[in-house]
Amino acid sequence: MKKKLLTHNISLDTSFFEQNNFLIGAKINELAELCKKGIANIFITDITYRETIARFRKNLVASEEKTKKPKEQLATNARVLRNFPEMKGYFELPKIDIEALHLKFKTDFDNWLKENKAVIIPTEHITIKEIFDAYFNNRHPFKEGEKKHEFPDAFTLKALVEYFSSKKQTSYLLSSDNDMLSYSSKILIPTEDSSLLYDLIIRTTNEEISERAIELLEDEFRNSKAFLEKETKEMIMRAIEDEIGSTYQIDELEIDSVQQIDISDIDLNSFSIVSLNTTDKTAKLECSITFSFEVSFSADDYSEAWYDKEDDKHHFVESKTFSIEDTYDIPVTINAHFDTDEEFAELEIEDINYGKKLDVMDSFNPRKHYY
């Protein structure tokens, strides 16, 4: 992305909504804040509108399917909890009504677009001949392979280019779709890095007051980097310990306890400003932290054990110790408060990895990591 802000117009692709969990993701909310301040303008095509609603339904159906097994496991493996009235919530989980939730999302989506004054660009005027010309000549976004999936993208790109050309304007195109990102045009500027785009908009729009605020934030970040790394390290250690401690079982292993966690080579990288409010004198920063870790934990191995019904006991259970080593690069969100009159700034870590699990056990292999 070019460092100079070229436009306040931001066109959104379906993949942007889906990647950010539709209306609940941090990047969606940060964009809405920019719109409310009047420093960003949202555009989507009618195809993107319909596609987003359809993709939400598909994700909803998949989520419903994934919740069936945990419900069954609770009913079977935790039935002793039925003895306690306060635990009944575990067994009376609400039914997922696909149609009702789908309709509710459509209403919420419509309201979100209205609140943020989003412009929905029609595509009905685009002739199929124009699209087929691109299709048969392998022009963008068509390529070798399953070209039929690129037809919605072709209509969307054509409509966006025509619309902004007629207005003598340009627009950024937020997307995580590789075909969209590889599109080359003087009118559309594709990007998948919303943090950098928001940062660019904020820095450019609030130049006078923000310029000094940004200097204060950069100075404070530099001066408190060691402290922030220490705080982040402690949060990482807690996250790893909680994650392994809540895993309980992997195949025929029952996790016992975390024995040791070592974090090393920790490095907090430079930040992007994803929101800045000169009225409230607050900001939200986002950066990444690189670190290496080694964690060892004990577990009971039941792979060679046998169960004695009379004694109600497993025999030949072997206690083992496992170790995992890896290097991660995860996002860190920082809340900031500043005062340009008093010439100070304060930073506080909000969360790591957007509050999501680190998934340190995803690469775990009992044979590889046993010692």
From TrEMBL:
DUF4935 domain boundaries: 10-180
Listed Pfam families: PIN_12
Protein name: DUF4935 domain-containing protein
Species of the source: Mariniradius saccharolyticus AK6
Organism lineage: Bacteria, Pseudomonadati, Bacteroidota, Cytophagia, Cytophagales
